[in-house]
Amino acid sequence: MNDEEKSEEQLVTEIKKHRKLYSELEGHMADFNLMKPENKPVQDALKFLSPLLMELLNLTTVEDIYDFVQEKLQELVKDAYIIISTYDEPSESLKIRDMIGITPRMLELAKTLIGVETKDFNLPQDTLDEKSKNLMSSGKLKQLDEGLYYISGGRLSREKYGLIEEAFGVDETYVMGFSFKGQLFGSVIIVTKKGGKPLNISTVETILNIFSAVLQNKIAEKEVKKREKLLSLVTDNMLNVVGQIDAEGTFQYISPSIKTVLGYEPREILGESVFKLINLTHPQDQIKVSSTFMESTVSYLPGGVQHRFKHANGHYLWLESLGNPLFDEKGQYQGVVFSMTNIDSVKVAEENLRTSLQEKELLLRELHHRVKNNMQIISSLLSLQSQHIKDDRDLKIFESSQNRVKTMALIHEEIYSSQNFTHINLHDYLRNITKELLTFHIGDPCRVKLKFKVEDVKMELETAIPLGLLVNEIVANSVVHAFPNNRKGEIKVVLRREGDEFTLRISDNGVGIPDNVEFEKAETLGFQLIKNLAKQLDGQLELQKDNGTIFTLKFKELDYKKRF
After folding, report:
1. d(CA 255, CA 234)
2. How far apart are CA 23 and CA 29, in angstroms?
3. How far apart are CA 229 and CA 234, in angstroms?
């Protein structure tokens, strides 16, 4: 392909390569004064460097470059053996790739002396000490005093190498390694023959450095392509979109996954303003998204927002966008890196769950409402039935039963009117119970007064229901028995919390419980219920008979039993 057929981008790329290689070449040639007569061989060598460099740049693979190295060295170096080695990744060693000037008969002789075929001979990297690595990575063609023995890392005896050098007519041995990022990736060994033409070290060293620079460039390109391929594989298949916006709010990068996630081609976004994406958000979310973006830009702090975004096919889906400010090495603000994750399925699940919970709440609310109504019906039936009872003892039994049913109905009424179906406000619940009892039993509200001091506590139903029934029994006992013959007095209900323990104190200043009645042994239904309910609460109940009656209960909230 001639220059006219190449694109402008390809030509720019080649020019950059040429500049880089010539720069490296100047570095290698810095020690030469090319005008000196003694450097005429170097001047002659440089006559073909330019076309040589052009040929190298047109080679596409590392293998092609090594073949080219072999060909040029064969032209330049006479009366010498040349061994080219390359790095073998599986064995982590330098292995012989090409041998110039060595005949099959010589290879057989070497195999007999060394005991291994030359193609299988390798030099593991870990056998090289620091001095050897520095020598081979110096960028210089170094002469080795110990010849082949040094090159092999002393793997065979000096005597055997002496035999090889004698058999092959070896005079001097030179080595130069090719390295990239501190890692040897190849080497050239030149072994001159006795009586042969002297080696032009400066010319060969210069040529090898050019080869090394081209090889390094090709290896670097290979690594970049490998990383680009890996990055492309990741960004094409990731489940979210990542990108970068510069300080002016222009998209500099957007991952190819935007096509999969949102249906847009990357070219539709690159170079556009960030407000293009903001305009694609749902109208109801645009203010939220733009304010989050501006706040993060001004504060230089990470930010995030959940919003709806318009897919390329027209429908909206939920995304979570996260942004992080980007700074250069000088601390200058360079823009934002961001990610957008599809959370549509999460939002749909949340909405379904919210709808399901609302339906369950309505169902529970209706259930409590019906239970309350049913208990009110039972209470009404007991009230109607009590109208036909003539015996005072039986009438009191019916009235007590009616009060207990009302107490249980009250808790369902509290739950029905509450926003919480697992906890109940004790202050309101217990106040309603006591007021209901006073209204039912005491005609004159001024005769028996209620002093109520209950902390604003929310309690689980497992504890609140038996507690309410216990308060009902104790207060009912006071209003029925403590103030006979229109006697005046007061009833106190106090509930306080100390840590995780509660103290309930219900007292009256009435006539008190007769001395001949033992609370622990009493068989009346009311006292039995009080004792059983205190036991159900795992509480400690104490009764005092001084100046009326005082019931004190210490208890803790019962462990919540999961309903589902």
Report:
1. 9
2. 10
3. 9
Residue whose C-alpha is closest to residue 209's, from 145, 148, 137: 137
Q: Which residues contact 537 (CB under 8 A, 6 or more apart)?
A: 463, 466, 467, 470, 553, 555, 558
pLDDT digits (tens, 9 = 90+) for 138-196: 778 888 777 766 666 566 677 777 777 777 778 888 888 887 776 777 888 888 888 88
- Contact at 8 Å (CB) between 409 and 468? no
Which amino acid, one-letter code, is at 239? L
What size, in residues, is the chain? Answer: 564
Helix axes 461-481, 426-441, angle to 10 degrees: 30
Residue 538's contacts (CB-CB under 8 Å, 6 or more residues apart) are 555, 556, 558
Neighbouring C-beta atoms of residue 559, cutoff 10 Å: 9
Q: What pLDDT band is residue 564 in, cutting at 50, 70 and 90?
A: very low
Whether 144 and 192 have beta carbons less than 8 Å apart is answered as no
Q: In angstroms, rounded to a whole number, what is the distance separating the alpha carbons of residues 88 and 466?
A: 82
CA angle, residues 538, 539, 544, in degrees to nearest 5: 155
Cα–Cα nearest to 319, from 310, 309, 311: 309
Residue from 519, 512, 488, 525 nearest 396 by CA? 525
The DSSP H or E segment spanning 498 is strand 489-498
Token pair of 447 as six digits: 């005769």
Residue with tokens 């070219």: 267
Please say whether the beta carbons of 425 and 458 come within 8 A.
yes
Question: Burial letters for 467-481: b for 16+ Cβ neighbours within 10 Å, e otherwise?
Answer: bbbbbbbbbbbbbbb
Backbone angles phi, psi at 494, to 5 degrees: -125, 130
Q: Token pair for residue 540?
A: 């400690």
The C-alpha angle 66, 68, 71, rounded to 5 degrees, equals 115
Rama region for 233: left / alpha / beta (φ>0; ψ in -120 to 50; rest): alpha
Q: Which pLDDT tens digit goes with each residue over 264-315?
A: 998 998 889 888 888 899 999 999 988 888 888 888 888 898 999 999 999 9
Q: Is the pTM of this model over 0.90?
A: no
Q: pLDDT tens-digit profile of 204-228?
A: 887 788 788 787 777 777 777 777 7
Q: Using alpha carbons only, what angle is made at residue 365 by residues 475 and 452, rounded to the nearest 5 degrees?
A: 25
Do 289 and 316 meet the contact criterion of CB atoms below 8 Å apart?
A: no
| Gap between the Cα atoms of 457 and 455, Å rounded | 6
- DSSP per residue over 19-74, as a string? HHHHHHHHHHTTT--TTSGGGHHHHHHHTTHHHHHHHHHT--SHHHHHHHHHHHHH
- Helical H runs in 418-493? 426-441, 461-481
